[in-house]
Amino acid sequence: MSEADQRWERVRNILLWLAIPLIIGALAASAVPQPVVGVIRLEDAIYTYSAQNTIKQIQYAIDHPEVRAVVLVMDSPGGTVVDTESIYMELTRLREKKPVVTVVNGMAASGGYYLSVNTDYIYAKPTSLVGNIGVIGYLPPAPFVIEDIITTGPYKLWGAPRDSDMRQIEMIKQGFFEAVKLGRGDKLTGKDSVTFSGQIWSGIDGLQLGIIDEFGTENDGAKKAAELAKVANYKVLDLSVPAGADLYGYYFFMADADGVTLPYPKEAGVYMLYIPPLPVK
Amino acid sequence: MKRQSITIAILALILPALLRGLWYYRGIPERSEIATPDYASFERPAPIINTPDTENIEQVGGTVVIDGYHANQFTINEIEALTAALRARGGNIETAADSLTLEILLKTASAFVSVSPSATFTQYETQLLKSFTERGGRILVFTDATRNALYFDYISGNPIAYGDANGANSLLKHFDISVNNDYLYNTEKNEGNFRNVIFDDFGKNELTFGLDEVAFYGSRSIKTDSGLLLLQGADTNLSSLDDAHDPNAGGAVLSADGTVAAFGDFTFLSAPYSAYTDNAALIQNLADFALSGSQQPSLELFPYIFTSNSVQVFVSPELEKDPSMVTALGGLQSSLRYLNLDLQFVDEVPSTGDAILIGSFDATEDFEDFLLKADVEIGDEAISTVAFGDVTKPGNGLVIFEPGKKGNTLLLLAGSPEDVIAMIGAASYGSLGTCLTSEQVAVCSVGTSDDYYYEDTSSDTVDETSTESADQSAEPTPEATPTPSG
């Protein structure tokens, strides 16, 4: 075999056994996805529409393997109990597979905090508002009958006796308190009488009480989520777009005659909601 | 050689994926089971229901006056459990709509009850009520932390809650009791909610007899320095003022003289809370307390000084029942009928039963015993009394009240038949407000004595001036009346 032939043979072998497999391998390697840290923004009260949108994004994160971790960006005063619980349960399903990190911007109060404790790590700003652990409800009036309204039972119109409603709210509270204890565990450093007093704290207070883990931003949250998911060189993706979340809801809060939004929900009910003092007029 | 080439090829094939994988993925995350609340295990806190023994309740009777004019933040059905317990004991419920009604109603009342007063008591009213307790009456004051009138600050727009603490304190401060403008709470041991506090440490008193545990639903804390703390709870009962436990404050207190009880809550008087814990037993005790008040009869209570519905009237024989006297006695009869009192005229001083005795200073033989007991001596010119010293006989009438086990007696004496008629008129009016009054004796000006008017001697020295004056007085010149336009 001539030297030229031998050279060609060598080139052919390199091409056949190395370059081509390498090219094929490189092409095939693109099937290994770049890990995604999904971002779910809950920057509203928790009610039907915001809950549905959040759950869509959680479901997207569960269904898509490239989403290796999720950052829950929170700025919510909480909302209805049932919608909070819906998100809480879906978050549990997500967390069983992937780490979730909360980053509190403005506030994670009441139901917002209920969701935060069902994540692996909580970041907040020093002046974020966190806590307000508890339930608030409006008792129905003492029952009476109305001439033009016919019902089939004494509480058909009123829902429940006032006393029963009060005790039901107390039962709901137990779920909230238990969720906080399970979610935060030994991280809580304050007395129960303080932690569960319903106070809302700044991030600084929250850090001292173990209500949050650390001060940090969304970037910190993404890094922490990636660390917990053991991924690097990840891509941060707002999940609202691929999940098809509809970000237009309806007005959850009351508005006064001038259209100014008030901190009170429009409908009577049972809430895990922080209702701040009225703004200065 | 071929095997080596194949190995290289395979390595080359997987190397990019391996490198890419290592570039992105640094391990396998560990996910442990996520613990969530066991919702199915939660139960709503159930109240303990106790029904007190309401059989064999003694019919003690009595009137309880409910305060109805201090902007009281309640409706009568909210204290139904208390009013029912009062009625079960034969108690009568009256409502005071103003201070005048209060004054009248207190004369026959066993107790005064003020529920969540958000307007303050005046000096006059507090004096009335202090006198009421000094005579043996009882006062119950209920405040409630959940009763607030909300106002909005003009500058900040912030809501400001005005409760009943100020109103209650304006009365209770006279009995060394103060209501804090707070609410009590307990996050550890409560009756269904943190604001429903439990009291299980009781001051020894008939009001707390038979109690093991009572619950108040939004209670203010109450203090007294000299009285008795009736209801005290665990150290975890905290005040909203400072989130601390005050061992000297509780849910209810009793004044040092045992006549005034103040409570931080009245929701426990409403169904269904009235049946929870030992609240029903407490309510029964409250009813007993309210109806245990009995005022010592005295002239201060006039005309509510009789014990029965039938009053015997004896008119001394020297007083003729002429038309003027008959008119006066008729007026007295009509007035007393408004008090549900029937008059029966008798010919001699009755020895038993309620009686009104009417006579003149000139014939007091029938009334000597009463005069002696009242320490009153009627002389020629003056009436000598212990309470007021000597007062002139002419123009004055005398009232003596003699309470007795067999009935109470009111004696009316004056100097002349006209003065006696005036005294009967005063009695018919139902008030001795213009008389000098002690517990048993009153002296009233009847104003018809000859000496009452100054002696007019002007007619002895009639001159032109006086004639002119007389003329002027006969035809007085009308004074100009100022008008708004000047």
Protein described:
- The complex is a heterodimer of chains A (281) and B (486).
- Chain A contains 8 helices and 13 strands.
- With 281 residues, chain A is an alpha/beta fold.
- In chain A, β1 (36-42), α2 (48-63) and β2 (67-76) form a beta-alpha-beta unit.
- In chain A, α2 runs parallel beside α3 (81-95).
- Chain A is elongated.
- The termini of chain A are far apart.
- Chain B is an alpha/beta fold and 486 residues long.
- Helices cover 24% and strands 23% of the residues of chain B.
- Chain B has 10 helices and 26 strands.
- In chain B, the strands form 6 sheets. In chain B, strands 2-1-3-4-16-15-12-9-10 form a 9-stranded mixed β-sheet, sandwiched between helices.
- In chain B, β3, α4 and β4 (138-142) form a beta-alpha-beta unit.
- In chain B, α2 packs across α6 (279-291) and α3 packs parallel to α4 (123-134).
- Chain B is rod-shaped, with a radius of gyration of 38 Å.
- In chain B, 39% of the residues are buried.
- The chains are: A alpha/beta (281), B alpha/beta (486).
- Chains A and B meet through α1, α3 and α5 of A and α1 of B.
